[in-house]
Amino acid sequence: MSAARPRRRADARADHEATNRAFWDADADAYQRAHGAQLARGAVWGVWAIPDVDLGVLGDTRGLDVLELGSGGAQWSVALARDGARVIALDQSRAQLRHAADNAATAGTVVPLVCASGEAVPLRSESVDLVFCDHGALSFCEPDR
């Protein structure tokens, strides 16, 4: 027997997506105030801020098309764009994407921003070389999607 899929609303967003967007839209400013300085360090993983250069998770992203899922304020995207990647930052939260726009402008980088669910990415299949998420996509998407 397979697991039941969540019921979709008329606007094609599952309830968990709407809940997630509402939470992050309400919390984005406080989250960025509390964590923005650490996140601004750039390509560092998780709450421990371990530099990717030490872990080698992403490797050399120069010249690659990269999609960051759950980008928040796009601090990762900005760092990768500075290093020569062509990055797209995707997040459900419009409030987080306002921070992302400010961060990209302050850094003088070009980072296209997409407001969408990680369950329904509005990009063609295989249109990017690398997809990653620092915060944990499973916390805001159905794992099988």
Spell the H/E element sequence.
Answer: HEEHEHEHEE
Low-confidence stretches: 1-10
Distance between the termini: 18 Å
Q: Please provide the count of β strands.
A: 6
Spatial order of strands in the largest sheet: 5-4-3-6
Number of helices: 4
Mean pLDDT: 86
Radius of gyration: 15 Å
User: What portion of residues is helical?
Assistant: 25-40%
Strand portion: 5-15%
Structural class: alpha/beta
Tell me the overall shape. globular
Biggest β-sheet strands, sense, barrel: 4 strands, parallel
Short descriptors:
145 residues, four-stranded parallel β-sheet, alpha/beta, 4 helices, globular, 6 strands
Describe the protein:
The structure is a single chain. With 145 residues, the chain is α/β, with parallel strands linked by helices. The chain is 35% helix and 14% strand. The chain is built from four helices and six strands; from the N terminus they run H-E-E-H-E-H-E-H-E-E. Strand 1 (44-45) and strand 2 form a beta hairpin. Helix 3 runs parallel beside helix 4. The longest helix is centred in the N-terminal third of the chain and has 25 residues, at 15-39. Mean pLDDT is 86; it is low at 1-10.
